[in-house]
Specification:
The protein is an all-alpha fold and about 475 residues long. It has a single domain, classed as Up-down Bundle (Growth Hormone, Chain: A). It is built from 19 helices and no strands. It has helices spanning about 15, 40-70, 75-95, 100, 105-130, 135-155, 170-195, 200-220, 240-250, 255-285, 290-315, 320-340, 345-370, 380-390, 395-405, 410-425, 435, 445-450, 455. Helix 15 crosses helix 16 (about 410-425). It is globular, with a radius of gyration of 21 Å. This is MFS transporter. It is found in: Cell membrane. It is a multi-pass membrane protein.
């Protein structure tokens, strides 16, 4: 599922959002401050900068896809470049996610922004000069994906730098709202620029968006992201911190099992959006290709409404564990409706409900993760969970060819929907799931450390977590 990079089909969004993605509380040095009436303006500035970079990334993705196919005429070239780009992003999360726990988070975001700007500029220069080389373009795509893999977990782990514990869910909701706007506006903007003005203008839009975003981020004081002097910053090597990220997630059983469930769901959702839906629209219901855009926009609208209104209304009325289960159920029903019905009016409604379901999963689980994880482990935990939840996505894509050959598109979608629907019940079997989900935000601070001390005590930087 996700909030993310690389081509961003809806199936990758759960993974990109950390498989279950929300925020955290205030650090000790901010805990004495009164809670703000809303979201900190500095945080909104950072989130808007991420929105601009994702919006520009949409333009870049579609422009590069069109450029590659136009220059080579080879789907194989394009598929290999996309595969390398996706693999780079997925692997960069656990391999580089430790940096956000060891170094100044704001410095990392600023550096990532300028590196993104350089890669966008190089891509634009190549397009203006008419110099297409698949190796060069592929390398730039991989660099951009690695930057996204570093940058995305920081979207969640920086929230405690700006928000009190009781504002965490609100901060995640604003993050999700901006992500949904980028999903709604990105494809329309990118296709309009490419078809109306050309590939070069779409790449120029990416460069301008990153430039503005980088300028906004440059105004954020770097001192905000400095390691807390009252705690011991990790002194371990990068390799040992990568290992500790996996060890902590495995030791925190509630996160480990939720990541496994997210992995199974992404096994279904990623190929659903990238492979099955195009085939379903083209061969089963035989609608024009623009109908795919309508379905994706309906999903994005569901994310927008879910994050902006529905999750806020449910907060305090429905326990978080039930919201998460309902979210999985809505995603499963989304697939089941597609597999069993072909109504042009019902299908967009099903995708809208699927988008709402994604927010019912991501916002509660991410909030709990951010609040309950010790601060010196937060970035690694988010990065590692995102990696685990995304790792099955390409496997699902490979498996779909066999499923489609023997079962057909519609039946395959129906069975995948039934699987996701069953997983909505499985979440209640996750150890301590209900306990953490029903705890108040203000009582979740370092709750994982208290419940699973063995997951942190043997790591080389555990002393800084206490």
């Amino acid at each position: 599922m996700s909030s993310g990079a690389t081509p961003d089909p809806a199936g990758s969004r759960l993974a990109c959002d950390g498989a279950l993605d929300v925020s955290a509380g205030l650090e000790g040095r901010l805990a004495s401050k009164p809670a703000p009436a809303g979201i900190d303006r500095q945080l909104l500035k950072v989130q808007f900068s991420f929105f601009l970079m994702v919006l520009g990334g949409r333009c870049n993705q579609l422009a590069v896809a069109w450029w590659v196919l136009q220059e080579t005429g080879s789907a194989l070239y394009f598929a290999n470049m996309i595969a390398c780009s996706i693999a780079t992003e997925v692997l960069s999360r656990p391999l580089l996610g430790w940096m956000g726990d060891k170094y100044n988070k704001i410095h990392i975001i600023k550096l990532a922004s300028w590196l993104s700007l350089i890669t966008a500029l190089l891509m634009l220069v190549l397009s203006v000069a008419g110099l297409f080389n698949p190796w060069t373009v592929g390398a730039l795509m991989m660099v951009s994906s690695a930057i996204v893999g570093v940058r995305d977990p920081l979207q969640a782990s920086i929230i405690p730098l700006f928000a009190n514990d009781d504002k965490v869910s609100l901060a995640f909701r604003s993050k999700s709202v901006m992500s949904s706007f980028s999903m709604l506006l990105g494809p329309a903007l990118a296709s309009g620029l490419i078809y109306g003005l050309g590939i070069t203008f779409a790449l120029a839009a990416d460069f301008v968006a990153i430039l503005i975003a980088g300028a906004l981020i440059a105004t954020i004081p770097s001192s905000i992201g400095a390691p807390d002097e009252s705690s011991n910053a990790p002194a371990a090597s990068g390799l040992s911190m990568i290992y500790s990220g996996f060890k902590v997630v495995y030791g925190v059983k509630v996160e480990f099992y939720l990541a496994i469930i997210a992995m199974l769901i992404n096994f279904a959702l990623f190929p659903f959006f990238t492979i099955l839906i195009p085939l379903y629209v083209k061969d089963v219901i035989q609608y024009p290709v623009t109908y795919i855009g309508l379905l994706d926009a309906s999903f994005g609208l569901g994310i927008l409404v879910g994050s902006y209104k529905i999750i806020g209304w449910l907060s305090g009325r429905v326990p978080r564990d039930r919201c998460v289960s309902a979210g999985f159920a809505l995603l499963g029903c989304n697939l089941l409706v597609v597999g069993t019905l072909s109504s042009s009016a019902i299908l967009p409604a099903a995708f809208f409900c699927g988008g709402v379901g994604l927010m019912l999963i991501n916002i509660p689980t991410s909030s709990v993760r951010l609040l309950a994880t010790p601060k010196l482990h937060r970035n690694r935990v988010f990065a590692t969970v995102a990696f685990l939840s995304a790792v099955a996505s390409p496997l699902g894509s490979f498996a779909m060819t066999t499923f489609i050959a023997y079962l057909g598109v519609a039946l395959t979608i129906t069975l995948l929907g039934a699987m996701v629907l069953l997983l909505s019940l499985l979440v209640f079997l996750v150890p301590d799931f209900r306990t953490f989900m029903r705890s108040q935000d203000t009582k979740l601070h370092d709750a994982y450390l208290e419940k699973y001390p063995e997951a942190f005590n043997s790591t080389t930087d555990a002393q800084g977590s206490t």
